[in-house]
Amino acid sequence: MKLTSFCALTGLLAGLLLAPAARATPFTFTFSATPPGGAITGQPGQLTGWGYDIGNTDTVDWFVPTELSASSFSIGTPDASYFDFPILAPGTRASRAFDAATIAGLYGVQVFAFATPGQSDSGVFTLSGEWWDGDPLAGGRLIQTSDPVTTPFALQVPGAPTLPVPATALLLAAGLGLMGSWGRWGRWQRVYQRSGQQR
Question: What is the number of domains present in the chain?
Answer without folding.
Answer: 1
